[in-house]
Design goal:
By secondary structure, the protein is an all-alpha fold. The protein has two helices and no strands.
């Protein structure tokens, strides 16, 4: 149960931070820049999401491993 909760928490965090980062990028860029760089923006967001997902996954796995070691 704890592992499932950690996974769901990490997944929701990943989604929220990715969306939040995308919104920040949209607000920072002018409308013309968005029209020019929308493909670059989506590629960057995708890469950012992958990197973030990997980092969150690593943190979750480390936490679960340490908890397992402490329990045994």
């Amino acid at each position: 149960m704890k592992q499932n909760k950690l996974f769901v928490l990490g997944f929701t965090m990943f989604i929220f931070v990715t969306l939040f980062g995308g919104l920040i990028m949209i607000f920072l860029m002018p409308i013309q820049e968005i029209r020019k760089n929308i493909q670059i923006f989506y590629n960057g967001l995708y890469l950012f999401g992958i990197i973030q997902g990997i980092s969150i996954g690593m943190i979750i796995t480390i936490l679960s491993a340490t908890k397992k070691k402490v329990n045994t």
